[in-house]
Task: structure prediction
Amino acid sequence: MIEKGRISYLELALIMYSTVVATAILYIPYITAQHAKRDLWLSPIWGSLSGFLIVMIIIKLSKLYPGKTLIEYGEMILGRFLGKIVAFIYLFFLLHNTALAFREYGEFIESAFLHKTPIIVVTGSIALSCAIAVHGGIETIGRCALIFLPVVFALYILIYVFLIPDLNVKNIFPILQDGIMPSLKGSIAPHAWLSQFSLMSFLIPLLTKRQKVLKWGMFSVIACVLTMVFINLGNLFLFGKIISNLHFPVFEAARYISIGSFFEHIESIVLAFWVLGAFVQLSAFFYMLVLGTSQWLALPSYKPFVLPIGFLIILFSVWSVPSFGEMIRGMGTTMPYYFLSVQLVIPIFLLCVALIRRKKLK
Result:
C-alpha cells in the first residue's frame, strides 16, 4: 500500500462531509431555487438517494476487494487493459472535479472580498497550502478535519440563530404548490454533489477498522443532507422569494446579521471559518487524485506527484470554465449529469461485472 497512514471512522465521515458541504452550501441554494422555488428545502432529501446508493455500492466493492481502491479493483474486475481505461476516465474526471472545486473556491473569494486579485493567485495560494497537507498524508488531512469541521459546523448554525428575529416561517407556505416536480428538478444538483461519496473508495482501505464503515458512511450522508436542508430553510425564511436571485445566500445572510449596534458586518469572520472547511475539502480532493494517479501508474510513492498535479489542477481550474456565469449555468444544466454519469454509473458497472464474474466462478 502506497499510503502508510490510517484514519478513524469519524475522520472518514468528516472528510466526506467536507467534500460535499463546503461548496454545496454556497452554490446549491441558488441552483436549486431556480427550479424548486420555495420547495428548495425538499430537494436535498430527494438527492440523498444518490448518496445512500453510492455508499452501499462502494462498501460492497470494498468488501469484495478488501484493501483496494476503485483504481486498483477496476483492473481486477475488468482486466488490465479495460481496467486501466476505466480508471483513467475516473481519474481524468477527478482532475476536472478537483479543478472545479478550486475554481468554485476562487470565484467565491474573489467576488466576496478580493475583487481586484487575479483568480489564479487566489487558487494558487490555497493549492500551495493543500499541497503541504497532501504531502503530509491522510493522517494530516484527517486531523485537520477533526479540528476544523466542528467549528465550521457550529458557525453554520450560529448564523441563523443570530437571525431568528428576522426569520419568517410563513415563507415556506404553500408547500408543494405546483406539485412535487419542481423540487425533483431542483434535486439534480444535490444528487450530483452527493454522488461524490464514490470517493470513499480511496479512504476505506486507510481505516484502522472497517467493521462499521457502512454506519459511518450513512451517518455522513445524513449529516450532509440535514445541513443542506437546514441552510435552505434558513435562507428561505430570511429571503423568501428573492432567494432565486442571490448567488451566495449564506454569505448574504451573514451580512444581514445585526445585534444592537456593535455586532454586525461579521461576513469576514464567516469567510475565515468557511475557508477552514474548504481547505479540508480541497486537500481531500487533491490527495485522492494524487493517490489514484500513483496507483494507476503502479508507483511506490505518491509524494513526488504532489507539486506537478497541483500545477495541473491550477491550470485546469482556469481552462475548464471561461467565466463565473458559465460555471453557475453549467451547475444547473450539464454538470450534474456529468457528475452522475461518472461517479454513479462507473461504480454500478464495476459492481455488476464483479458479481457476475463471482457467480460464474461459483
Q: What stands out?
A: Strands lie at 258-259, 263-264.
